[in-house]
Specification:
With 119 residues, this protein is mainly alpha-helical. The chain has helices spanning 2-5, 10-17, 21-29, 36-45, 73-82, 85-95, 100-117. The protein contains 7 helices and no strands.
Length: 119
């Protein structure tokens, strides 16, 4: 998702890492496992913290931070949606709208549509 958000091709990421775009493709699809050192390289290339890749990962009960986890289920749903092709496309298109009034009207429309579905 991060690669697509910054407009980087699989080929460009592969070049930065000394890989082919097919190897990057296999990493993204989950066909090939990524070593810790390769994950570190990817995080540096994409200019994101390593923790980005572990967002939403399960936390073991013995973890010292397990009791401090945020419990807002809507946050997980929103980040899951943004990681889909639809979410990414919607976000890119919405970001191109410069008129604040139009953006507000779109948000109001989506909220109204979502509330109508629950009825």
């Amino acid at each position: 998702m991060r690669r697509m958000m910054i407009g980087m091709s699989q080929e460009k990421l592969g070049e930065s890492l000394g890989l082919t775009f097919q190897q990057v493709q296999k990493y993204e699809k989950g066909t090939n496992r990524i070593s810790a050192s390769r994950l570190q390289q990817i995080s540096e290339t994409l200019n994101i913290p390593l923790a980005y890749f572990f967002k939403g990962a399960p936390v073991s009960e013995g973890s010292p931070n397990a009791g401090f986890a945020e419990g807002n289920p809507e946050e997980g749903y929103a980040s899951d949606f943004v990681m889909t092709a639809e979410g990414l496309s919607l976000n890119r298109a919405f970001a191109r709208i410069t008129d604040a009034k139009i953006r507000k009207r779109i948000v109001d429309l989506i909220v109204a549509l979502a509330e109508g579905e629950g009825a």
